[in-house]
Amino acid sequence: MLKLKDRIEGYQAIADIKLLSRLPIVIVINGRSFSKITSLLKKPYDENLTECLLSTMRKLCTDIEGAIFAYHHNDEIVIIVRNDQNSDTLPWCSNRVQKICSITSSIATLHFNRCVSAINLNLMGEAIFASQTFIVPNIMETINTLIYKQQHNFHTSIQFACFYELLKKHNKDDIKNMISGLSVDEKIELLNQECQIDFHEYPVPFRRGAACYKIPKIIEDGNVKNKWFVNSDLPIFTENQSFLSNIFKNGSDIFRNDN
Hints:
9 helices; Alpha-Beta Plaits; alpha+beta; 46% helix
């Protein structure tokens, strides 16, 4: 007969799932009920809210061992983690799913709320973040994950822009009927005709998202060191294919004139 200690620890061990080693890890962190707690903020885009989320993204990158790239859109932060750089690389949190999710959601919740408090952002209560993690089979699928996230953001931001700008002139039911079944181009044209707003003039983080990754920086002694950098002027990933591939190949971005 099993001892009580062994029996209880056995229950716990069954749920202590680990991700496969030496494969790219994707951590997706989402704000819980953000539409409700951000209801008093400027819509469809609030720069102060975005700054808090960008700061949270950078904090996650610095605290997660093996983090190589992060992408933010809407209320979501996607972190890419690698543990296959060399034979001695150990997986962060031993690739334990529950530990990865609990730590990342805690970091995001604590840091974001501190940022909100520092600037007195008018939220309807404190924010809570949830976390999910999974692996993808190779770096190419990691890049494809980020492409998908950016494309999803593009469609979502157009939907938000149409809804909240039209809400200044129409009721919700009329808006739903107006945009139902419309293509992306038709929504952009509707926004232009009804509200005299060019969607492409919204800030880049709203339309394309923002990212955090390392870039080479010259430090005081003249040496070069890779430093975390938040990029709020991202290219469209499918139109600049070398952007992501350079980062995942080298562990940091290359020297660029504009940086």
